[in-house]
Write the structure tokens for this entry.
Amino acid sequence: MHKNICLKVEYLGTNYYGFQLQDKTGKREITVQEVLEKAIKKLFKQKIRIAYASRTDRGVHAKGQVVNFKVSTVIPLRNIKKALNTFLPPDIRVKKVKIVKDDFHARFKAKSKIYRYIILNKPEPTVFQSNFSWHIAKPLDIPKMLRISKKIKGIKDFSIFAKEASAYETCIRHLMDISIKKTGSFVNIDLEASGFLRNMARNITAFLVKVGRKDISVKEALLILNKKKPYSNKPAPAHGLCLVRVKY
């Protein structure tokens, strides 16, 4: 029976060269997509190319990546989940399996994506969070970060926060929301957008951190956002970022 199968997947990006398959001659980097497609091929005995909601970069994690693929099968959904998790390594897990409409596409049907960046903001780092957060020893001024975050939101040109902005036809995106919350020593920055440019979430995070550390003043930040002052972006480390949810 022909089915369009949708998977919700979580993974640790530490050991992978991002999610998307790499096409680099002479290099051999393993990606999450490659490992997932091998498990799918092992189960269904055929090569299947998956569609995915978001291309996460090298070292970025995911709690809510969504993929889909079409296949003719009579295998029950619960057995698909169990079998795939048997074939997958411990750092990639299928959390949910469901049948979706034939026209569903994990990327093109997505209304928004939510990324979370985790910062450990205290004098000393901890080895237990080294792969999942960016350690910043200097106290962050959260109110100033919040003030600037409100100026970043909206439908606008995000080229200053993109990697290789010239590669895009347009850098206009809708950044629907940014929330910054401090709990104990952790600062969570959540960004929700209709779509993200490459490194956009990490570059926005790095910019907000510069404001929070007072490396740049609020006045300077506003000039940069209004393109009245030059700015050279450098993204926050990949390991602090996680794709939390894709909304449909």
